[in-house]
Design brief:
By secondary structure, the protein is mainly beta. It has one helix spanning about 70-75, and strands at about 45-50, 50-55, 70, 85, 100-105, 105-110, 110-115, 120-130, 135-140, 140, 150-155, 180-185, 190-195, 210-215, 225-230, 230-235, 240-245, 260-270. The strands form four sheets. Strands 3, 8, 9, 10, 12, 13, 14, 16 and 17 form a nine-stranded antiparallel sheet that branches. The relative contact order is 0.25.
Length: about 270
C-alpha cells in the first residue's frame, strides 16, 4: 500500500482546516501541451513564494500553478523545506535549466520528532493542521491521454536508514531507497490522501486505476542516470486523472528512512 510520502501526521485533526479538492474543469485549462506533455514536465520553471519555491513559471495560470506540489507547506512550519529547485546540478545544462531536489529530513524541533521524505506530486496540498502538524493531499490533474512510458533522469544519494517506526524496525541500518511512480485513473475527482482518516492509495486494489508504473532507485549514483517507467494498462478505459509522485525515501510515508537521503529528478517526458 502506498500512503502519503513522509507527511507529518498524528491522530488529532482540525476539521476546520480540511480543504476539499477544487473541482477540475472538464476541458484542458492549458496544462497539457500539444504533444501530450504535462505543464513544466522538464521541471525548469520555479517561482519564489516566501521561504518556498513553487514548481511553476512567471505568468502561470491558476490551473498551471496547481499542477505540481510538495509537503513544504507543512514541513516549512518547522523550518524544513524537503523539496527545492536545483539549478547547478542538472541533467541537461543551459540557460534557465533546473531540476528538483528531494531530501529526507528528520525533523526535531519544538517537540516534533518525525521523519519527512522529500516528495513532489501532481495535485495540491489539502488542509494543514498547525497544532498537530497533520495534512492531507489532493492527488491528480486532469489528463485523458495514455502514454506508453515516462522517461527522465535521476540521481540518488541514499543514506543509511536511521529513523524507523513499527513495524519497520528491521530496516534500521539498511541503505535507503527512493521511488517514482505514475498513476492514470478515472476517479470522479482528485484522490484525497488523508492519514487522519486512514485514507490511502492502494494500486493493487483500486478499481479506478487504468495504468500504473513505478521505478525504484536503490543505489548510490555518481551522476544522473536515465530511467524509463513503463506504464502497464489494465483495461481500455479512458483516464480522467494523472498522478506522478516521487519520494526520496520510499518508506517515508511510514516515517522510516535515512536522514539526508537525496533524490534529484529532471527532464520528465511521456512517450506515446
Amino acid at each position: 500500500m502506498i500512503t502519503v510520502m513522509g507527511l507529518l501526521s498524528c491522530s488529532e485533526w482540525n476539521d476546520d482546516l480540511y480543504r476539499e479538492p477544487v473541482p477540475e474543469p472538464d476541458e484542458d485549462p492549458g496544462i497539457v501541451t500539444a504533444d501530450g506533455q504535462l505543464y513544466n514536465m522538464n521541471l525548469d520553471m520555479w517561482t519564489k513564494d516566501g521561504s518556498n519555491e513553487n514548481c511553476f513559471g512567471p505568468g502561470a495560470t491558476y490551473w498551471q500553478k496547481r499542477v505540481w506540489a510538495s509537503p513544504n507547506a507543512t514541513t516549512s512550519m518547522m523550518g524544513y523545506n524537503t523539496v527545492a529547485p536545483e539549478r547547478e546540478f542538472v541533467a541537461v545544462s543551459g540557460p534557465g535549466k533546473a531540476a528538483v531536489k528531494l531530501q529526507t529530513c528528520h525533523i526535531n524541533k519544538l517537540g516534533v520528532k518525525k521523519l519527512a521524505s522529500g516528495c513532489l506530486f501532481t495535485g495540491q496540498m489539502g488542509g494543514v493542521d498547525i497544532m498537530s502538524m497533520n495534512a492531507s493531499l489532493n492527488w491528480g490533474v486532469k489528463f485523458s491521454l495514455k502514454p506508453k512510458s515516462m522517461e527522465g533522469y535521476a540521481c540518488y544519494k541514499p543514506k543509511t536508514i536511521n529513523v524507523v517506526k513499527p513495524p519497520y524496525e528491521s530496516y534500521e541500518g539498511q541503505m535507503d531507497k527512493a521511488h517514482l511512480y505514475v498513476i492514470l485513473a478515472d476517479w470522479d475527482s482528485q484522490f484525497v490522501v488523508d492519514p487522519a482518516k486512514s485514507q490511502f492509495f492502494d494500486p493493487d486494489n483500486d478499481p479506478a486505476v487504468i495504468g500504473y508504473g513505478i521505478v525504484t532507485f536503490d543505489h548510490e549514483m555518481a551522476g544522473y542516470e536515465k530511467f524509463t517507467i513503463n506504464i502497464e494498462y489494465r483495461n481500455a478505459r479512458t483516464p480522467g486523472y494523472l498522478v506522478i509522485v516521487g519520494a526520496s525515501s520510499r518508506l517515508g510515508d511510514y516515517f522510516t528512512g535515512g536522514d539526508g537521503s537525496t533524490l534529484y529528478l529532471d527532464e520528465f517526458k511521456f512517450n506515446y
